[in-house]
């Protein structure tokens, strides 16, 4: 029983690790670069993001624990459902360094489009295993839909500067 508590906490905290590292590494780029980008009027306030991601990462982390537990741990049945989850988590963690760190809007857009597909795939693979876990991913998918639209708008409205030709 005590060991299950550790697994529950571990799975729930895991998404926060990459999210925190992404924020920590790129935090200086937000006021310097991000604030100067042209953004649509419906762009959420910067203050919303930490709260939103705390809720979303907690929900998805706990959902992954439910799937892992229902499938009996790291069994052969868990390879696809947890593999999809792990892949989408890696793309989630890759987005801030691409967007803020590298300032590569095109790669950030490709990343988030692939992320959307993987999250949908994850949810589809989880549906027959645990409907509660699938529902816990729904707010994340909704937020990603908004974030994808925001990334598209920022990419379109802020053309990347071409390096000057040397003569």
Automatic annotation (TrEMBL):
Protein known as: TSPO protein
Gene Ontology, cellular component aspect: mitochondrial outer membrane
Compartments it resides in: Membrane
InterPro entries reported in the protein's UniProt record: TspO/MBR-related_sf, TspO_MBR
CDD domains named in the record: TSPO_MBR
Keywords: Membrane, Transmembrane, Transmembrane helix
Similarity comment: Belongs to the TspO/BZRP family.
Gene it is expressed from: Tspo_0
Species name: Eurystomus gularis
Annotated TM spans: 6-26, 47-66, 78-95, 107-129, 135-155
Membrane protein topology class: Multi-pass membrane protein
Major localization class: membrane
Gene3D superfamilies per record: TspO/MBR protein
Statement: the UniProt record of this protein carries the keyword Transmembrane: yes
């Amino acid at each position: 029983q005590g060991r299950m508590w550790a697994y529950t906490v571990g799975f729930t905290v895991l998404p926060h690790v990459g999210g925190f590292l992404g924020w920590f590494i790129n935090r200086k780029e937000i006021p310097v670069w991000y604030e100067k980008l042209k953004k649509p009027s419906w762009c959420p306030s910067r203050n919303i993001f930490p709260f939103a991601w705390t809720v979303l990462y907690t929900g998805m982390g706990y959902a992954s624990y439910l799937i892992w537990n229902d499938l009996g741990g790291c069994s052969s049945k868990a390879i696809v459902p947890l593999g999809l989850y792990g892949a989408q988590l890696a793309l989630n963690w890759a987005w801030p360094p691409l967007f803020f760190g590298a300032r590569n809007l095109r790669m950030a857009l490709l990343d988030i489009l692939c992320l959307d597909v993987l999250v949908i795939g994850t949810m589809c693979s989880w549906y027959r295993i645990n409907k509660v876990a699938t529902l816990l991913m729904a707010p994340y998918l909704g937020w990603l839909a908004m974030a994808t639209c925001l990334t598209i708008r920022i990419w379109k409205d802020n053309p990347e500067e071409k390096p000057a030709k040397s003569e």
